[in-house]
Amino acid sequence: MTKNTSTPRAPARRLSWNDPATRALVYQALILSLVGFAVWYLVSNTLHNLAARNISTGFGFLRQEAGFAIGESVVAYTPADTYGRAIWVGLLNTLRISVIGIIAATLFGTLLGIARLSRNWLLSRVASAYIEVMRNIPLLLQLFFWYAIITESTPGPREALNPLPGVFLSNRGLKLPSLQGDALDWITAGLGMAIIGILLLAHWGRKRQDATGKIFPLVRVGVLLLFALPAAGWLLSGGALTVELPELKGFNFTGGMSLSPEFSALLAGLVMYTSAFVAEVVRSGIQSVNQGQWEAAGALGLSRARMLRLVILPQALRVIVPPMTSQYLNLTKNSSLAVAIGYPDIVSVVNTTLNQTGQAIEGILIIMAAYLTVSLSISIFMNWYNKRIALVER
């Protein structure tokens, strides 16, 4: 007698309103239809109104000559360049202030968060007062405050403060010496190779420590690479390298490197404001670690600083990283307030562009696309890092 091993076929699904899956499909189709109709209506109505007013559309204006100057830029720019080049300069200025602000706010906020948990009564109270004050004053007011301090309380260029040789502080900004010469590209390449080498050595050192228990001296080797590789690049280039000092000519300084009052005020405001929120994130992360971890580290004879660095903070990172992502995104988006104090970020540059061309919709779309791209990039990186440090269940 043979045994029937064939799998019975599932009964055919009948379309019925009593079937939850059928109702779900109908509801989703209706919602998608409504959204599609709303988008079509808005786009067609906008295009009709623009055509009725003889307003041109499209992004062809990006190839036209801009005709306006930008106070500071990371790359070369002149008024004869195109609007596309001007917007690129504004985007680079936004990225510049965001990257420097994120690094500075992370370092300062971490120190503040640790200080708030300090056993020193005065230090913890000062940190707490700073955090509460900065968190409850609007960022825009802080930007106005720092800009007024920098521009009103510092002297003019002729009476500029000179705390160090080649360093001048005035209401035109901070002037610093700069490196000039053909060897600068080689030195920059050597510095980049040193950073990549340190990251690779850190990854290899962790694997080596897991396998053998031996700790690789990453700090000493990293410092050596940071000095040796740029020096090697300078020697291999054979080019000249000179130090250009700022020099007062007429009513302002020429030469050297300059940090404008707008950049300095924006950086100070963003760092001071965001670091207060970062400090609370760090504090909550440290307090989430079980007290037994402190006691176990103390039983091993570790100092409090080494306990924090080797035992507590690595575990607290799993709690710190997710909310820290929100603070990084907030700092990047808050940089758009730069237009209030005259820093030429992407919002300021696009505003000037749309005032000259009348391409308001295209300009707003460019700003939205720029911030969306930057924010998603930060989120993707932080999510990757969060998965990397997450506990893996066996």
TrEMBL record:
PROSITE patterns: ABC_TM1. Residues 91-382 form the ABC transmembrane type-1 domain. It is found in: Cell inner membrane; Cell membrane. Keywords: Amino-acid transport, Cell membrane, Membrane, Transmembrane, Transmembrane helix, Transport. One of its GO terms (cellular component) is ATP-binding cassette (ABC) transporter complex. It comes from the Bacteria. Its main location: membrane. The chain crosses the membrane at residues 21-43, 97-117, 129-149, 183-202, 223-243, 263-286, 364-385. InterPro entries: AA_ABC_transptr_permease_3TM, ArtM/GltK/GlnP/TcyL/YhdX-like, MetI-like, MetI-like_sf. GO terms for biological process: amino acid transport. SUPFAM superfamilies: MetI-like (SSF161098). It is a multi-pass membrane protein. Pfam families: BPD_transp_1. One of its GO terms (molecular function) is transmembrane transporter activity. Belongs to the binding-protein-dependent transport system permease family. HisMQ subfamily. This is Amino acid ABC transporter permease.
